[in-house]
Amino acid sequence: MKKNSWINVGFQVGALVVALLITTLLLVAAGAPPLKAYASIISGAFGSSNNIENILITWSPLLLTTAGVLITFSAGLWNIGIEGQMTLGAIFATGVLRALQNTQLPPALIIILGILAGVIGGALWAALAGALKTFGGVNEIFGGLGLNFVSTALTIYLVFGPWKRPGVGSMSGTQPFDEKLWLPSLPHTELSLWALGISLLVIIAVYFMLRGTHLGLRLKAVGKNSKAAFLMGVPTWQYSMFAFLLCGAFAGLSGAIQVTSVYHRLLPNISNGYGFLGLLVAMLINYQALWAAPIAFFFAAVNIGSVQLQIQYKLDSSFAGVLQDLLVLLVLLGEGARQRFIKKG
Amino acid sequence: MRKNVLTIALLAMTIVLVLTACGPAATTVAPATSVPPTSVPSTQVAATLPPVPTVTPAPFIFGMLLVGAKNDNGWSQATYDGGLYVEQQIAGSKMLYLENVYSGSPSYPGLTASQLADQLVSQGAKLIFFNSDDMKDEALKFANANPKIYVVGVSDDWTWKDGKNYTVSANQVDIMGRMEYMKMIAGCAAALTTQTGKIGFLGPLINDETRRLAASAYLGAKYCWSQVLGKDATKLTFTVTWIGFWFNIPGVTADPTQVADNFFNTGYDVVISGIDTTEALVEAEKAKTAGKAVWALAYDYKTNCGVAPDICLGVPYFNWGPAFAATAKTAVDGTFAENFQWNGPDWTNLSNPDTGAVGFAKGQGLSADNGTKLDAFIAQLAAGLNLWTGPINLQDGTAYLTAGTVATDQQIWYLPQLLEGMEGASVPSK
Amino acid sequence: MDVELRDIDKTFGAVHANVGINLKVPAGTIQGLLGENGAGKSTLMKILSGFIRADAGEILLDGHPVIIHSPADAIQHGVGMLHQDPLDIPPMRVIDNFILGRKGGLTIGHAAAERDYKRLAEEFSFSIDPDSYVDALTVGERQQLEILRLIWLGAKALIFDEPTTGISAAQKVKLFTALRLLASQGKTILFVSHKLEDVEGLCSRVAVLRQGILVGEAKQPYTTKNLVEMMFGKEISVGARDPCAGDGKTNLSLRDLSVEDYRLKVQNVSLEVCCGEVIGLAGMEGSGQGLFLRSVAGLVRTVGGHIFLNDTDLTGHSYHAFKRLGAAFLPAARLEEGLATGMSLTEHIVLAEEAHGFFIDWDKGRELTRKRIADFNIHGTPASPVESLSGGNQQRALLALLREPLSLLLLEHPTRGLDIESTIYIWSKLKDRCREGTCILFISSDLEEILQYSDRVLVFFSGKVTKPLESKSLSIEKLGELIGGKGWPESTSGKSK
């Protein structure tokens, strides 16, 4: 056992070293001094209180999408449609805020209703993917991808059409909401402790749900072997559907938070790839919810910090994505190699 | 499996942190590439460099957020060049910039323009240019959140006391050029050249700015069509097609290549570009190669005609340098104050890089004869011809300016619709 | 081909699966390999066929040492293996499955392959339509397909891992005929089994493994007592028939039940089962007994008739409604349908128990699991993933998942692939259930098992079903005839489609 755990660590460190090595080579190839480039990422991420706040702002939606995919992964589902679910959350939240912004309702209530609507919107969109899978036999990957396209088209329609800014036809988004409809944030930032608190609560809840509840165990059984789970008394399609709904709810919450606390309006691509990034985080942590928070934080920090690569070294800032993808890929490869190694050894 | 996967990630962070620790040491060894903090008092610099008697001023660092690419041959390149001009004019100044900054840009997933401005500030920038209307709200928000940083909102109107959107923003200056005149010239060149009497306007998104520029082009075209060529104004077709953003975003905007092709395939022989990028010129050249007699007018950037010189009738462009430099100087000497600038051309020399805010460069596609006529038109404008004079009706027929009334700046800036006689959407209808 | 294994050694974690095994098998021999579950037979054969690598030792084929990296490698060397759970890919046509695995470059056309397939099938008297789909085949038919495929690929030594489990008596006869034919052609047959009867009837030599060690070899004629002693270290006697005495109260009542799938119709079956009664379902694989059993579990929708469980009409209800009234179904495909790979025994036990509250009390779950492990003699720990257990232990684990009390237990092949000891143990557990009033319906291809443990028997043939027959009135011969389609009255309750 001891020996094995050292082998595990060895493979993981190996994967990490290789990832850093490749990244370093890429940096060199791009003409950036690697050590200074890494240093610039760190300073871009942690160099000022503004930057740290920005990490916390991006951490929150990433935590939520990661929490969501942990649930669907647990049930054996690849919920690629999470981007669309997040978008629908943003659309529903925007819709409710728009409908109620001129009423006499207290702003706090409007915000709460908006966020709830986002949760429902995300869940409904996920239910659609789930229904396609359960009743239509459409693989959730294809269904999800299709629904992602539909959600993008819907956003563009709304932004250019019914919800356009008066006299404006631009993809810059809808008219920003009045400040009273913003989720309260720390002064002069978009950092909302509410958003952060809710996201952390959600990831903690998901951790406990997957680890210590009958619900979590049944989801896992459905994911591992739905036939066996069915024979053991688990209503399998209902649980698959439940996993979709819950994941969609978290994605929708994430979208609603983008609207109420970051952008204060609806705009195309409001999901910003957070759903896909959440999938990456979940894969990197091998679906262990315990690690979701630190790794999501790390990814958020890389996202923020690597802007410096463009400022200082004129590297495309999508470099952050390359680093994240490499890390996940190599850790998965390392895990495969480890299993082969253990089998042979 | 294993908590150990996580050890991995923690290790990753640790390693990176260790690397970072090495970072600053490395910078001190190679000061040439490092950016010394601006706050270092000059006396200290003198102390570390005893034999040098002259006191070097702390470098002035400013940042620029570009909506597109710095080499887009259009709007972003023009503003980027404005930044280079500042570097030239203010000794020791240095520009930091980020490209492709717009809502939902995949280059910065989840980051807003103001967050990106934070990154520029953390590298020492004291003045930030937000180069697009797309960042209008972000510029104001950033200015309010960072009272010690100076902000320039290019094309914004927050600080226009007589504007509709005036908002107190003490550390902000908004700058725009009076492109209306140059668009009139472009419209005139199009009308002089068209054989079919059908002019297309490749529009970006719809807002106050784009409406007034499209309308100005129409006014110029109508004037030259009827007054210079003496043709029937009702026989001139002027159609605006909007793509939805300043440049093509696949899957989100309409494709400007297709829009331009569509114009050329339906009898329009001159297309005036109103977007940041060069699709109109590229497609016109293709159509010409295929045997069609077509032309295009470029936009934004002085040498934009170079993309397809043969078919280019000319380019109305921005010359941001002088205004940017003047504003940056106030930031350096501490006299920076909230104001709004809508700068006009230098009629004495339209192409002087050190004076006018806007200019027009004729293209090789313009015939010599039409060139002469166009020069005459420009001379009239310089002499005070104002096409924004009534009677002017809005597209829906309502009177906007009664006969003889000259439009106020507000009436031009906040034009609510396209004008009577223009085809295309005044407000988004999708 | 002569096959020789020298000093083969293999360890899995703490388990020493093969301890320095030496075995020589000359060409044309049918070599038996006996041993109880977990004795190391499958490991040894997987080493020979390239699925796993030995820690030490060497393999010689026709006297030449070879190194086998993979199953593809093995077949290149002429070694092919048929697994206990057929490894083919279900949603494929038979002929495509047949061609699969052929080395590229030969570009054998479908037509040529199909000709070869038909020729080989005829040679061995197998009759599987090359255009049917593999997932519609019985285990026995899949096995036949796999034999044809391996021979076509050029196998000169064939390994059979428990080939007689899960196939019908008639298929077994066909299989043995085919094996003898192969041996007479000079091919080497390695026959892995725990069934004495099969080994005695078929193999010219036998090697016995116990706890990873080759404990002895024997040649025909064998003495059963000797073999059993080698296998278990002690002699085990098969228990006497012990019918359950129910209390006479009707528990399960089927009235004119009809069920069908795309191949078969089972019609108008009526049956009253008392508490504690055991009903055996006999028949060749795919004769309708599987369909029937699943319909009584609510897993397959019936097309006519009624099902009453404890006087409640459950017709048309789902499996979970049956389950709520105390029914349970245990599938034959343990790792495909019964257990969830990647989950531990504790997780299975907790999952199968009724949930109390929202949170799981893992301590209580582990406690319960430890108790079940002891009760059911499972070799494993609460944290063991189910796939790490041997087949017999998986089957015991499945039984350990059943709740108490049950009114109806439906079993597919409850002892398939298990050694005698496990079989006896499992039936003792099942009989305990009967004494508590559970009635049992089970499918088995093992006629002795049917006769020994059933009170009454239903025999299936192409969807036709006999009236319930008192097992006392039946003999193996009579049962075998019925299964083979002989001795049926003219008008029967079902007919094939």
What's the topology here?
The complex is a heterotrimer of chains A (345), B (430) and C (497).
Chain A: H1 2-29, H2 34-46, H3 49-74, H4 82-100, H5 107-134, H6 140-160, H7 193-212, H8 214-224, H9 226-231, H10 236-263, H11 274-284, H12 292-305, H13 307-313, H14 319-344
Helix pairs in contact in A: 1-14, 2-12, 2-13, 3-7, 3-8, 3-10, 3-11, 3-12, 4-5, 4-6, 4-10, 5-6, 5-10, 7-8, 8-10, 11-12, 11-14, 12-14
Chain B: H1 4-29, H2 42-48, E1 61-65, H3 75-89, E2 94-98, H4 113-121, E3 127-130, H5 136-145, E4 150-154, E5 172-177, H6 179-193, E6 198-203, H7 208-228, E7 237-242, H8 256-265, E8 270-273, H9 279-289, E9 295-297, E10 312-318, H10 321-333, E11 339-343, E12 358-362, H11 368-382, E13 392-393, E14 399-401, H12 409-413, E15 422-423
Parallel strand pairs in B: 1-2, 1-3, 3-4, 4-5, 5-11, 6-7, 6-8, 7-15, 8-9, 9-10
Antiparallel strand pairs in B: 10-12, 13-14
Helix pairs in contact in B: 3-10, 4-5, 6-7, 6-11, 8-9
Chain C: E1 3-12, E2 15-25, E3 30-34, H1 41-48, E4 56-61, E5 64-66, H2 71-76, E6 79-82, H3 94-99, H4 110-123, H5 139-152, E7 157-161, H6 169-184, E8 188-193, H7 196-202, E9 205-210, E10 213-219, H8 224-232, E11 250-260, E12 265-274, E13 278-283, H9 289-296, E14 304-309, E15 312-313, H10 319-324, E16 327-330, H11 334-338, H12 345-352, H13 362-375, H14 391-400, E17 408-412, H15 420-435, E18 439-443, H16 447-453, E19 456-461, E20 464-465, E21 469-470, H17 476-483
Parallel strand pairs in C: 3-8, 3-9, 6-7, 7-8, 13-18, 13-19, 16-17, 17-18
Antiparallel strand pairs in C: 1-2, 1-4, 4-5, 9-10, 11-12, 11-14, 14-15, 19-20, 19-21
Helix pairs in contact in C: 4-5, 12-13, 14-15
Structure notes:
Helices cover 75% and strands 0% of the residues of chain A. Chain A is built from 14 helices and no strands. Chain A has helices spanning 2-29, 34-46, 49-74, 82-100, 107-134, 140-160, 193-212, 214-224, 226-231, 236-263, 274-284, 292-305, 307-313, 319-344. In chain A, α3 runs antiparallel to α10 (236-263), α4 packs parallel to α6 (140-160) and α11 (274-284) packs parallel to α14. The model of chain A has no long low-confidence stretch (mean pLDDT 90). Chain B has 2 domains: 57-177 and 320-356, Rossmann fold (3-Layer(aba) Sandwich); 179-317 and 359-423, Rossmann fold. Chain B has helices at 4-29, 42-48, 75-89, 113-121, 136-145, 179-193, 208-228, 256-265, 279-289, 321-333, 368-382, 409-413, and strands at residues 61-65, 94-98, 127-130, 150-154, 172-177, 198-203, 237-242, 270-273, 295-297, 312-318, 339-343, 358-362, 392-393, 399-401, 422-423. Chain B is globular and about 60 Å long. Chain B starts with a helix and ends in a 7-residue tail after the last strand. Chain C has helices at residues 41-48, 71-76, 94-99, 110-123, 139-152, 169-184, 196-202, 224-232, 289-296, 319-324, 334-338, 345-352, 362-375, 391-400, 420-435, 447-453, 476-483, and strands at 3-12, 15-25, 30-34, 56-61, 64-66, 79-82, 157-161, 188-193, 205-210, 213-219, 250-260, 265-274, 278-283, 304-309, 312-313, 327-330, 408-412, 439-443, 456-461, 464-465, 469-470. Chain C has 2 domains: 3-232, P-loop containing nucleotide triphosphate hydrolases (Rossmann fold, 3-Layer(aba) Sandwich), CATH 3.40.50.300; 250-326 and 403-483, Rossmann fold, CATH 3.40.50.300. The model of chain C is unreliable at 235-242 and 491-497 (pLDDT under 50). Chains in contact: A-B, A-C. Chains A and B meet through α1, α2, α3, α6 and α11 of A and α1, β2, α4 and α5 of B.
